[in-house]
Design a protein that fits this description.
- The complex is a heterodimer of chains A (about 475) and B (about 350).
- Chain A has helices at about 10-15, 45-55, 65, 80-85, 130-140, 175-185, 195-200, 220-230, 255-260, 260-290, 300-310, 315-335, 340-360, 365-380, 385-420; strands spanning about 25-30, 35-40, 75, 90-95, 100-105, 150-155, 160-170, 215, 230-235, 240-245, 425, 430.
- In chain A, helix 10 packs across helix 15 and helix 14 (about 365-380) crosses helix 15.
- Chain A is about 45% helix and about 10% strand.
- With about 475 residues, chain A is an alpha+beta fold.
- Chain A folds into 3 domains: about 10-105, no CATH class; about 130-245, no CATH class; about 260-425, no CATH class.
- Chain A has a 5-stranded antiparallel β-sheet, sandwiched between helices.
- Chain A starts with 10 loop residues before the first helix and ends in a 44-residue tail after the last strand.
- Chain A is built from 15 helices and 12 strands.
- In chain B, about 50% of the residues are buried.
- Chain B is globular.
- Chain B is mainly α and about 350 residues long.
- Chain B has one domain: Amino acid/polyamine transporter I (Up-down Bundle), CATH 1.20.1740.
- Chain B is built from 14 helices and no strands.
- Helix content of chain B is about 65%, strand content about 0%.
- Chain B has helices spanning about 10-20, 25-35, 45-65, 70-75, 80-110, 120-135, 135-150, 180-190, 210-235, 240-245, 250-255, 265-295, 300-315, 320-355.
- Classes of the chains: A alpha+beta (about 475), B mainly alpha (about 350).
- The interface of A and B includes residues 297, 298, 418 and 419 of A.
């Protein structure tokens, strides 16, 4: 059926829409009665030259109709479509009352670089960037399957950011896909600039301290999630891919675990869970022991502890909070400053905390060790978002330990567990495979069993195709 | 709760274990020694047999009633005017029992570590945790219980450290000599097995295709195993006279644990028992909530949960000392034991009458 153009679909009206946009370019080709509007910063100069300049320069007036019949010229019938097209990096071509759009999008992007937050020792080093087409390409080139489906949505009333939902047909549970689509459709917000924003908008419990979706900048990681039967979301202009549904324990695995021998991978996994224990409880335990339970320290160690604490004028809880805040300040300063200055801050902070604070009698040596171990342990956790959440919770536990010692500490842990056991990720239990208990999945959570043992996809994904491999060994 | 979310056998077993297990293990070896004397731990086997029979009754209700809720079964044959006051009574007993268990834990902790702290302040903090857990519903409670189970599991093998000091000769070849008041003591000790009886109320939440009754048996068997494991160790480490004098033999034992970096773990270990106590208290309050829900749907609301806990908190002000709390727990324990046997027996009778075409009040 032939559509009739709306009355506002003319050059003057559309040009007027872009009033005071100095970055818009208007070019005319009087010989063929054609006008073109585009944003030069959004387009590829090569594409512009080969798809518009060359054909238009070498054409006669009577051949123009034939030219516009080619498929790269898409006729539009509404002025809004034309405006949106120009904003998306297309060129709007006005010829004898008709308007065509031609896609010549190609702004300059950052090159494919190493991930800054998720480095691995072995394995691929490329990471997602801001260009969503590059990101899609990084996934497509690893996953050569027509079953990899990509759905596009636009979110953000002002920014109109594109969001892509990726899943493997036959591996992903379609109920999750539908639920995700539903949650994205109902978002009403002015701007979604980053994957992290989208993740918060579609979380089951936005007020929880725990991240409910795993985020990654690594395409190999994203592909392995897809193959697990999970869903990946990409946001335009964001290097963050979001994986859903996610389990709490997934945040403690790194692609490195799979690229090394399984014994090493297992040791690393266990080390990370040890780090989890240390990061949330070690300083709190110090506070608890030095405030209420000195009897827990063996005699030989007690002398050292008492000596190191005898000049400190504060109760342990203040001392610990002071030092923890100091470490957080250092970390935040290091994160915000340029790399070279950040190093200086690290050294200065290290000296101030390590030496001066102890000599000045503001804190004890043992606490420095506790705080430093907790901080280092928190950085062992591969997911920065999770590690940040855990560090924040540590403050709560320190305060609880300062109030009621071991009992307070245990109460704090109980509170965390009660909270976390009610969480879900896209409706799937967050604590799976521990609670609800799925023993077979423990092989790929607490340890990294040999590949011959990892027979099934994670239970959480409820994949219609559970079997991952049939290695006979 | 999502309709698809049902308690799997593993979760039921863990919930049963966590509901039964509690701070009673600290006094259990002493009670066994006082009431039953030599080789008192053997009485736990009798308790196991009795509780297994009780669970068999529960499984009969499950089988005859085809997995229907026990309330539904009763309401079909007994007028509501009779049942509702009974529900209120049941709920009251369960709320009191749960609150007293919480209070006992708090008093013990106060005795150990915080002699100057007002126990009711600690009780308040624990009740807040109970509230947060209870409003999440049975499925999330079971998830939390499972997590608690895994993070407390490491405590039980610690007893292996005492094996080099264990001597069979301390057990003596005599059975149940030097004890007294065995009947009273027996009922008293049996209270430490309580918790499984609540699961008669939870049939509708169980995944009925997957042998939920076997799970209750397993949970009960595991708790028996742990009780025997602890008590036997105590009987092999202390003499009978010592055991009779030590009020909390397990605490004394745990105080002897030594590691290179840490010793006197009893405080921390006792802290970990909070996880077990929380689930026990929550399960009793949940049972009370289930009973009142038959009368009014308000029982499902957060407000009702708040009121339940507040009432329990208020009443737990009354007993001041551990002795008084023990007295309350003992008396309530008798009642709860009676209820534990009473409900399944009545339900079985009702089901038999219904099976013979008895009159229905629906």
């Amino acid at each position: 059926m032939k559509q009739t153009p709306d009355v506002t679909l003319n050059f003057q009206h559309i040009f007027h829409q872009f009033e005071h946009c100095v970055d818009l370019v208007h070019r005319t080709f009087p010989e063929i009665h054609t006008d073109i509007l585009y944003f030069p910063n959004l387009i590829s100069k090569i594409a512009f030259s080969s798809m518009i300049l060359e054909p238009f320069a070498n054409i006669q007036l009577q051949e123009v109709d034939e030219l516009f019949k080619q498929s790269q010229f898409v006729e539009v019938f509404h002025s809004k479509e034309a405006v949106v097209g120009v904003l998306e990096g297309k060129a709007a071509i006005f010829n004898q009352g008709k308007v065509f759009l031609i896609d010549i999008y190609g702004p300059k992007d950052r090159n494919i670089e190493q991930s800054g937050t998720e480095t691995v020792i072995t394995g691929p080093h490329d990471s997602f960037g801001e260009s969503v087409s590059t990101n899609l390409s990084l996934i497509r080139r690893r996953l050569k399957s027509s079953h990899l489906k990509v759905i596009e949505y636009s979110v953000g009333e002002v920014t109109k950011s594109k969001i892509y939902i990726l899943y493997i047909d036959g591996l992903a549970n379609m109920n999750f896909v539908k639920e995700l689509e539903h949650r994205i459709k109902i978002i009403e917000i002015d701007a979604v600039n980053e994957g992290g924003v989208l993740a918060q908008l579609i979380e089951d419990k936005p007020n929880s301290i725990f991240p409910q979706y795993l985020r990654t900048e690594r395409p190999d990681s994203a592909v392995s999630k897809l193959v697990d039967g999970r869903i990946i979301m990409l946001v335009e202009n964001s290097p963050t891919a979001i994986s859903a549904p996610s389990s709490f324990f997934e945040f403690f695995s790194s692609p490195d675990d799979y690229y090394q021998r399984w014994t090493l991978g297992t040791a690393l996994r266990l080390l990370r869970f040890l780090a989890l224990l240390i990061t949330i409880t070690f300083t709190a335990l110090y506070v608890s022991v030095t405030t209420y339970h000195y009897e827990m320290i063996p005699e030989s160690l007690l002398m050292t502890l008492v000596e190191s604490r005898n000049r400190v004028p504060f109760p342990p809880v203040y001392e610990a909070l002071l030092m923890e805040t100091m470490i957080e300040l250092l970390r935040e300063a290091g994160a915000r400053l340029p790399t070279k200055i950040a190093q200086t801050i690290g050294i200065v902070g290290g000296i101030v905390i390590g030496q001066a604070a102890v000599q000045a009698g503001l804190t004890s040596n043992v606490l420095i060790i506790a705080v430093a171990s907790s901080a280092i342990a928190s950085f062992v956790i591969p997911s920065y978002v999770m590690s940040a959440s855990l560090r924040l919770m540590r403050f709560g536990l320190i305060i609880m330990a300062g109030i009621w010692g071991n009992l307070g500490l245990i109460m704090g842990v109980a509170l965390i567990i009660i909270h976390i056991s009610g969480l879900t990720s896209l409706g799937a239990p967050y604590l799976i495979p521990v609670a609800p208990m799925k023993g077979t999945d423990w092989k790929d959570i607490f340890i990294r069993a040999p590949f011959s043992q990892l027979k099934n996809r994670p239970y959480q994904t409820k994949s219609p195709n559970q079997v991952r491999q049939k290695i006979r060994k | 709760m999502n309709e698809n979310e049902k308690l799997s056998p593993f979760h039921i077993a863990v919930l049963v274990f966590m509901s039964q297990m509690g701070i009673v293990v600290f006094t259990l070896p002493n009670s066994l020694a006082v009431y039953f004397g030599t080789n008192g731990w053997l009485f736990l086997l009798i308790c196991f047999v009795v509780s297994t029979i009780n669970i068999y009754f529960i499984s009969l209700v499950f089988r005859l009633g085809k997995g229907r809720s026990v309330f539904e079964i009763l309401e079909r044959s007994i007028p509501k005017a009779v049942l509702y006051p009974v529900y209120i009574g049941l709920a009251s007993v369960w709320i009191l029992f749960g609150s007293m268990i919480g209070k006992k834990y708090v008093l013990l902790f106060q005795m150990m570590a915080f002699p100057t702290t007002n126990p009711m302040v600690i009780k308040l903090a624990i009740d807040i945790l109970v509230y947060l857990l209870l409003i999440k519903g049975i499925y999330n409670i079971s998830k939390a219980a499972t997590f608690f189970f895994w993070i407390t599991l490491w405590m039980y093998p610690l007893m292996f450290m005492f094996l080099p000091h264990f001597h069979w000769i301390r057990l003596t070849p005599f059975i149940f000599k030097e004890g007294h008041d065995m009947v009273k003591g027996g009922v008293d000790i049996y209270a430490s097995f309580l918790g499984y009886e609540l699961f008669i109320l939870l049939f509708p939440y169980m995944d009925q295709k997957k042998k939920p009754m076997l799970a209750i048996y397993s949970g009960n068997a595991f708790v028996t195993f742990i009780y025997i494991w602890y008590s036997l160790t105590c009987f092999g480490l202390f003499s009978l006279k010592q055991l009779k004098k030590l009020l909390f033999p397990l605490l004394d034992l745990q105080a002897l644990l030594r590691f290179p970096f840490v010793e006197r773990l009893e405080n921390l270990l006792f802290g970990f028992y909070l996880f077990l106590v929380l689930i026990t208290v929550v399960m009793y309050l949940l049972a009370a909530q289930e009973a009142v829900r038959r009368i009014t749907p308000i029982a499902k609301s957060h407000f009702f949960v708040f009121i339940t806990i507040a009432v329990g908190y208020g009443i737990s002000y009354i007993p001041k000392s551990i002795d008084q709390v023990n007295d309350w727990i003992m008396k309530l324990g008798y009642t709860v034991t009676g209820i534990g046997f009473g409900i399944p027996i009545i339900a079985i009778l009702v089901l038999l009458i219904q099976g013979k075409g008895g009159q229905s009040h629906v």
